[in-house]
Design goal:
By secondary structure, the chain is mainly beta. The chain has helices spanning 117-128, 158-162; strands at 5-7, 18-25, 29-32, 35-38, 43-51, 55-69, 76-90, 107-108, 114-116.
């Protein structure tokens, strides 16, 4: 993983000053929950760092194309990612503005005046990734009996599934006679 630490130049400590940064980031694999996303090409990112008077506001975009597995059928899915980079760094850790914010809404600018963009880029990607990556909205998934991809056609197991009696090797068969109070 690349080092994306930006040292704030002295002229940026004047209120209303800003600086633009951009680059590419090699990130072969990114984990989001149980899913692994692979990026064949580097991610492109850009960020502006603006002095708001008492803090540095970091805002920008990260973009790239990822491939992961469909949550239902396990086939490859291409996903275009475009996440918003956001960060807020208080220049003075004792500033009053921190009283109005939750602790996870800001950071304090480190003494060495560097901001690490990597966690901000990773958070932006995480927020843009789907909770349930699907190859298509109506993906039929895999047959629970034989494992065939049901998007490619019927597997022949449906006749056994259609019966009212659950298969004895089905772990949910014990719930068949469960009576729930209906009100």
């Amino acid at each position: 993983m690349e080092n994306l630490r930006i040292t704030i130049p002295p002229e940026l400590f004047s209120p209303a000053e800003f600086r633009h940064y951009e680059g590419k980031l090699e990130m072969p694999v990114f984990k989001a929950g149980p899913d692994l996303y692979s990026f064949a090409e580097p991610l492109e990112w850009s960020a502006d760092i603006t002095n708001t008077g008492d803090a540095f506001l970091v805002s920008g975009m990260v973009e790239g194309d990822a491939v992961t597995s469909c949550a239902r059928c396990l086939e490859d899915v291409a996903i275009h990612c475009m996440g918003e980079i956001e960060g807020y760094y208080l220049i003075d850790g004792d500033a009053e503005s921190s009283e109005d914010m939750e602790g996870d809404e800001f950071d304090v600018l480190p003494e060495d005046h560097t901001i690490d963009l990597l966690p901000l880029i990773q958070a932006a990607l995480l927020m843009d990734m789907p909770l349930l990556p699907l190859c298509q909205d109506d993906c039929k998934g895999l047959c629970p009996k034989c494992g065939a991809n049901l998007n490619e056609g019927d597997c022949g197991c449906e006749a056994a599934e259609a019966s009212d009696e659950p298969s004895p090797d089905n772990p949910f068969a014990v719930l068949k006679d469960l009576k729930l109070d209906e009100e």
